[in-house]
Amino acid sequence: MTVVQLMFYVLGFIVLASALFVAASKNLVRSIFMFFITLFALAGLYVLALADFVAITQVVIYVGGILVLILFAFMLSGKETLNAMQQQKSQFMSINKVAALLLAGLFFIVLLNMGLKMGADNLAWIKKSISLNNNISVTDVVTNNIGINLMTRYLLPFEALSILLMMALVGAAHLSRKEQRQ
Amino acid sequence: MISLTDFLIVSAGLFSLGLFMIVSKRNAIQILIGIELMLNAAILNLVAFGKYDRLNNGGQIFALFAIVLAAATTAVALAIILNVYRRYKTIDPAKVDKLRD
């Protein structure tokens, strides 16, 4: 087992364990901070998949932006949330949880079965890409290529995304404004 | 190198955990975190398969697009959650059941 594989297994374990803690924890603040660890370990996994630019973007946008936004919303909706979380002990909740567990477990079984049976490393296009030397090797610099592709080949999705971002900005500002008069 | 199957297994686990959070939690913020987990599972798969596309970088670029879309979604969702909290004084989605007061 090489060092890279060992790092992958450690990071994968951290991702799954912290995500499990996020899902199981009753304390919202703790689960938000464990989500932080999940996102960081996922950035590590992206680095191991040789996508360093995506990893940096993950750290900047997810950890720097989304997590701070979630914390902000939690603090603005404060005490009621915590009170609501405390009373999760009635019988109805456990039935609800069993159903959710069943659904998630069945989904996991299906996805696992698919992933194991598919033989992802032996797919035709992956073999072709390896034989054409089209796979990213450790010494490659990919970021330049991403920039060029973003401005040429993927220009249309990029512009569509910019329009959607502007709509989201206007929508969020409109939703969170103070109501003047009814 | 790391095989693609390992990436698929990790992302299957993440996806199922996110699904479990979405179905079982009674708090809008935790449901949002579940959605983020599922999106991250998808992004992990995109990045893992994007390793075999050096010329066009399809996987990595669409992973970037997905991250940016997740940011936009979160901003709008949190604005909606804050509005719901202001009106109903709760963010339990099961209790938000009035269309107009």
Overview of the molecule:
The complex is a heterodimer of chains A (182) and B (101). Chain A has helices at residues 3-24, 28-48, 52-86, 91-118, 124-131, 143-151, 155-175. Chain A has 182 residues and is mainly alpha-helical. In chain A, helix 1 (3-24) packs antiparallel against helix 2 (28-48) and helix 2 (28-48) packs antiparallel against helix 3 (52-86). Chain A is globular and about 60 Å long. Chain A starts with a helix and ends in a 7-residue tail after the last helix. The model of chain A has no long low-confidence stretch (mean pLDDT 86). In chain B, helix 1 packs antiparallel against helix 2 and helix 2 packs antiparallel against helix 3 (58-88). The radius of gyration of chain B is 17 Å and the shape is elongated. Chain B has 101 residues and is mainly alpha-helical. Chain B has three helices and no strands. Chains A and B meet through helix 1, helix 2, helix 3, helix 4 and helix 5 of A and helix 1, helix 2 and helix 3 of B.
Mean pLDDT of chain B: 89
| DSSP helix fraction of chain A | over 70%
Point out poorly predicted stretches of chain A.
Answer: none
End-to-end separation of chain A in angstroms reads 67 Å
Estimate the mean pLDDT confidence of chain A: 86
Sequence of secondary-structure elements of chain A? HHHHHHH
Helix segment tally of chain A: 7
Helicity level of chain B: over 70%
Structural class of chain A: mainly alpha
Strand content of chain B: under 5%
Sum up the overall morphology of chain A in one term.
Answer: globular
Q: What gap, in angstroms, lies between the N and C termini of chain B?
A: 59 Å
Low-confidence stretches of chain B: none
Number of helices of chain B: 3
Rg of chain A (C-alpha, Å): 22 Å
What assembly state would you assign to the polypeptide chains in this entry? Answer: heterodimer
**What is the molecular shape of chain B?**
elongated
Task: Note the main sheet of chain A.
Answer: none
Care to count the β-strands of chain A? 0
